[in-house]
Amino acid sequence: MAAVYEWSESNGVGQVITDSISNLNFGSNDSVNIVPATYPIDAGNNSFEKLIRAKFSGVTFTSISNMKFWKSAGGYKVGESIKAIANQAYVQPVVTTSILAVSSVPESEGTALSIQEAGGVTGIISAPGYTKYLVLQLQTTGSTPAGAVNQKTFTFQYDEV
Questions:
Q1: Between the CA of residue 118 and those of 10, 39, 114, what are the distances in Å?
Q2: Does the model's pTM come out above 0.85?
Q3: Given pLDDT bands bounded at 50, 70 and 90, which one contains residue 63?
Q4: Helices H, strands E: what count in the chain?
Q5: Using one digit for the tens of pLDDT, what is the confidence trace for 104-155?
Q6: Which of 21, 10, 140, 147 is nearest to 82 (CA)?
Q7: Is 58 exposed, middle or buried (0-12, 13-18, 19+ CB in 10 A)?
Q8: Which domains are present in the chain?
Q9: What integer is the mean pLDDT of 153-160?
C-alpha cells in the first residue's frame, strides 16, 4: 500500500486533535467540520484560525518530501481574503486577526507554501507521521457581501519514495 494521507485539525486550549476531517469550512467557532450556516462570519470579522496538518500512513513508502500547499481554484468575494502560514507548532486558535497567518494563501504551485514534517526541519516524513501545522484564517471587511463566499479548492502535493 502506498502512502495515504488525511487532514487533521486541532482545536481548543489543550490541542484536541481530530483526524480525518470532512471539511475545512471557516466559521465563528473553534470547532472541526463546521457548518457555516450554524457559525457564520459577520462582514468585517474573521473566522477562527484553522490549524490543520496532514497525517500520513501506509506501509510501503520510505519517505514523503517536497510537500506544497496552495489555493488552486475559487475566487474571492469583495473584501474577503484567506491568510496563511506553514510549519507552525500548535497554538490555541483565535478569532482576532491572526498574528501568525499574515500572508495571503498562495494561488499557484510556483508560490506554494513548503511544508515540513512535525519532528524536525528536514521536510521528510516516514510512516506514520504528521506534518507541521498550517494556520489559515478567513478575513473579511465591511465591504464583503452578505451570504456564502465562493467555494475554494486547496491543493496539497508531495513526492513519495
A1: 14, 30, 13
A2: yes
A3: confident
A4: 0, 10
A5: 999 999 999 999 887 665 656 666 788 999 999 999 999 999 999 999 999 9
A6: 140
A7: middle
A8: 4-160 (2.60.40)
A9: 94
